[in-house]
Amino acid sequence: MPNRTPVLTPDLIQIVKIFLGTALGLVLVFSLFDAYRANNTGKGRSFQVADADRLFFLNLRSIHYDREVRLEAGMEIYRHGKRSKSDTVFTFFPALLLHSKQQEAYLFFELERAEYPLQIQINRGDQIDQIPFDLGGNAAHKTLGEQLWPLLQQDASFSLLVRDKEIPLWQTESEKEVLKTVLTDYFRLLNQPQP
């Protein structure tokens, strides 16, 4: 019988221990930093709604809104119940859109009795600024909401410029409160701090 040398020599066991220890260490380190992994889904998370935030809105805040269900789009539209409603005057109020399948929320400024593009003129006493706005996508409406929030805190006055006509916008305190409420609810839905 030939003399067989053992396969698991002490040197081989030492090498296996080093590789296994390193591999387990890397797995442990990567599991601690799991939240920092790359997002390769192709979708941004800027409109994602957590279940807790969605339930908070549906159970406590949605009673202040008129609800419209759009089955073909899989969305629910929430318009504040105290917004100005007129058949003759231009209105420009935001609505909240909740997409149930994608767990996302969108802000959409609805323009009635006027056409895009438009400009929002902001008067802060001695300073007049303009924000151009076209229909755009979800990000454009969210950006407009983020731009309006600090201006509402400064008690600025607003007007719409449509085809070189200046139309007063959100003039009463109740209209501004409705706008603040909708923006607050939207940022709360997204679990984002108000700008």
Name the descriptors:
4-stranded antiparallel β-sheet; alpha+beta; single chain; 195 residues; 4 helices
The largest sheet has its strands arranged as 1-2-3-4
Kindly state the number of beta strands: 8
Q: What helical percentage do the residues reach?
A: 25-40%
Structural class: alpha+beta
Can you walk me through this structure?
With 195 residues, the protein is an alpha+beta fold. It has four helices and eight strands, in the order ααββββββαββα. The strands form two sheets. A four-stranded antiparallel beta sheet has the order 1-2-3-4. A four-stranded antiparallel beta sheet has the order 6-5-7-8, with helices on one face. A hairpin with a 2-residue loop joins β5 (118-124) and β6. It is elongated. It starts with 9 loop residues before the first helix and ends in a 6-residue tail after the last helix. The mean pLDDT is 86.
Write the layout of secondary structure elements.
Layout: H1 10-32, H2 51-61, E1 65-70, E2 75-80, E3 91-99, E4 104-112, E5 118-124, E6 127-133, H3 138-153, E7 157-162, E8 165-169, H4 173-189
Give a brief description.
This protein is of the alpha+beta class and 195 residues long. The protein contains four helices and eight strands; from the N terminus they run H-H-E-E-E-E-E-E-H-E-E-H. 34% of the residues lie in helices and 28% in strands.
